[in-house]
Specification:
The chain has a single domain, classed as Spore Coat Polysaccharide Biosynthesis Protein SpsA, Chain A, CATH 3.90.550. Helix content is 30%, strand content 24%. A 6-stranded mixed sheet has the order 2-1-5-8-7-9. The protein has a 3-stranded mixed sheet with strand order 6-11-10, with no helix packed on it. By secondary structure, it is α/β, with parallel strands linked by helices. The relative contact order is 0.18.
């Protein structure tokens, strides 16, 4: 099984650099995707936008922002990685562990499952009608037969799903909010998706993956992974092999 890991960050930090270095030293192909290292205008010119929709509380609408999510898919596209790898992992910078061995444990565990999408909180609208994005932008109702959402700070996508995402972008001249796009494409195309919340051993590796509030350092156990943990440059990381 060939895998590629994208570490998504606004700026490089000791933490993200160490994770990327550790992955490469262990023979896992990876890339540190940094917002500032790919020009936003380049992505706008090829319509590589739309993965992130942020709330505008004044107008009760949304605005789009190009982030490392778009740039990670640009990296896959420009380097033809879709032809080289079976699965693509995405890890946001505020997914934190004090012990990088935990990341390898999670990857090894996820690799035992045959699924096109592994993520958290994969739900259809009726299961979580209070999720704010259902009511801020209703365009998903025309784009997907059975809209779902997922929570993706730590996730794995198959090459088949990544290919469908590129097809969606080509057809629509944009991506779409990734927390709706990934799972909705999976469901519409009858693909296999797993909510890792229900994996039997997941509590061995994950302390808490949540939207908010920020998790405090004092609540972090060495052997587990957490989200969101901010101010990475001030946090320690153990990189023992």
């Amino acid at each position: 099984m060939n895998i590629f890991v994208s570490i998504l960050c606004q700026n490089k930090s000791t933490y993200t650099i160490s994770i990327n270095k550790r992955l490469k030293e262990s023979g896992i192909d990876s890339s540190l995707i940094v917002d500032s290292e790919i020009n936003n205008d380049l992505l706008r010119n090829i319509n590589f936008t739309g993965f992130n929709r942020l709330p505008d509380e004044v107008t009760n609408s949304h605005y789009t922002k190009i982030t490392a999510w778009e740039k990670s898919f640009y990296n896959i596209h420009i380097n033809n990685l879709i032809d080289k790898y079976d699965y693509f992992y995405f890890i946001e910078e505020d997914v934190y562990t004090k012990d990088t061995n935990t990341i390898f444990d999670i990857i090894s565990y996820f690799n035992t499952f045959n699924a096109d999408l592994i993520s958290k909180l994969i739900l259809f609208k009726e299961e979580q009608p209070e999720w704010p994005w259902w009511n801020i932008d209703h365009s998903y109702e025309k784009l997907f037969n059975d809209p779902h959402r997922s929570f993706n700070p730590l996730c794995r996508l198959s090459k088949k799903l990544v290919s469908l995402i590129f097809e969606f972008q080509k057809h629509n001249n944009t991506f779409y909010f990734h927390e709706i796009l990934f799972s909705s494409l999976c469901v519409d195309h009858h693909m296999i998706y797993h909510d890792y919340s229900y994996y039997p051993k997941i509590n061995d590796y994950i302390g808490n993956i949540q939207y908010r509030p920020n998790i405090l350092v004092k609540d972090i156990l060495d052997s587990k992974i957490y989200h969101p943990v901010k101010h990475m440059k001030n946090l320690e990381v153990r990189i023992d092999k």
